[in-house]
Amino acid sequence: MNLVEISKEIENGNVSLGIELGSTRIKAVLITSDYKTIASGSFVWENQFKDQIWTYSLDTVWQGIQASYSQMAAEVHSKYHQSLTSIKSIGISAMMHGYLAFSKNNDLLVPFRTWRNNITEESAAKLTEAFSFNIPQRWTIAHLYQAILNGEEHVKDIDFVTTLAGYVHWKLSGEKVLGVGDASGVFPIDEKTGYYSKSMLKTFAELENVKQFDWDINQVLPDVKSAGEKAGELTAEGANLLDVTGKLQAGSVMAPPEGDAGTGMVGTNSVRKRTGNISVGTSAFSMVVLEKPLKSVHRDIDVVMTPDGAPVAMVHVNNCSSDINAWAQIFSDFAARLGINLAPDKLYEALFLEATKADRDLGHLINYSYQSGENITNIKAGRPLFVRKSDSNFNLPNFMQTQLYSAFAPLKIGMDILSNEEDIKTDVMIAQGGLFRTPVVAQQVLSDALNIPITVMANAGEGGPWGMAVLAMFASDSNGQSLSDYLDTNVFSNPESMTLSPEPEGVEAYDEFTKEYVAGLPVEAQAGEVI
Length: 531
Fold this sequence. Notes:
Domain Carbohydrate kinase FGGY N-terminal: 16-241
Helix content: 25-40%
Strand content: 15-25%
CATH topology of the largest domain: Nucleotidyltransferase, domain 5
Domain Carbohydrate kinase FGGY C-terminal: 277-475
Structural class: alpha/beta
Protein name: L-ribulokinase (Putative)
GO molecular function, one term: kinase activity
CATH class of the largest domain: Alpha Beta
Number of helices: 19
CATH architecture of the largest domain: 2-Layer Sandwich
Number of strands: 23
Number of domains: 3
Largest sheet: 7 strands, mixed
Strand order of the largest sheet: 17-18-16-15-21-22-23
Radius of gyration: 23 Å
Keywords: Kinase, Transferase
Distance between the termini: 57 Å
């Protein structure tokens, strides 16, 4: 579309908005009917570790959403000379899992407990045994049951529990609902019904230490909707929460709120069976849409759902790019001391290109990028740790390549379970995330790590909020199509992408690195105990 056509779409309100609350950034993306981004806004935030809990304040949630929206609306006005007053459809997505519990008076009972907390080991294990279905520590039901096991005072007052996306959607629309993808990280979903498993709900309700409470788990959990269904409308109160200037009108169709895993699948067109995608950021996860159920229950493999309710094998790791970002900031600070101000993309490009000059054995450097604990390697407390021997070849190329290798190491360990024990393989995986903004380098490392071709699309750095904007448009205009057909026919008819295949030397080098990495894990575990 040209500028005049886009201006007309804005004037007519024929635009869709996706807002995603990621772990380090809240972003708003506005798209037109041709699925092109015309404006965006963002807000940087960080989780806080308070009273041994990783959390975000709800005040900051709204500060970030309003700042992102305001920035996006200002871009609309400056580029297209139109005020944003009407939006056809809106979708909210956020980090999956976690625990937000509210009373009948809609008061938050305890601070938001994010996916990053490794504090539900007992409840996750007991529920996994009771359900014969893997319940990871991150899941909402694990947090709820752990609070019960802990004897926490607030549990008796619970009226409603939800995820971060579900909370924001509720405040904007008045609807206590989740998209099926996000809901599948709350409680197990029955593929046949597209709703929480009734047999597992019954099992949970009949647990001795659950019976004591007056509330009913069936009423406490949010309702579930599939992609393409309408999940309410933007209320007047919700419009004022989004747009503090008061210009935005109520009435926008609200899409079912989704988790970042679901928007990642949409943003990479990976919702059909036998497709897969990988999303990397503060955490990382891979998703493989399953043709058949897994043979066994694996404590390191989640079974979740696509936004339209197909089962997915998910490998989720708590740590990925945080340590790289921390080191990049050190280099940025040093450059600034020399009077050199480097834009982030230029800084990462320079560092990543150095990594391509690394020795095959990385100089025998080892790094553990564990900002928090890591379930998949059984590390309870995160202590970012860089280790080298006295005779290691310690230089910048080896250091940076070690950072990249270590960022993907937990993901590789989890993916090996799927390929080796379940014989699940995909022809190619589509990857997205900020690490791929520098072309080729991180993409090739990931391909070598997993020993499969990796495709990166042109929207690799911005897939999540854009994917949610697409889901919002689908909710208002699906025309009876399935989500997979809608994406193939309308959204990805001519995708821009690049695919890299694993290089034999790189695969062998990464396998050798992994052996050293696994052998050194006791050092990382010990660091968490003594530091």
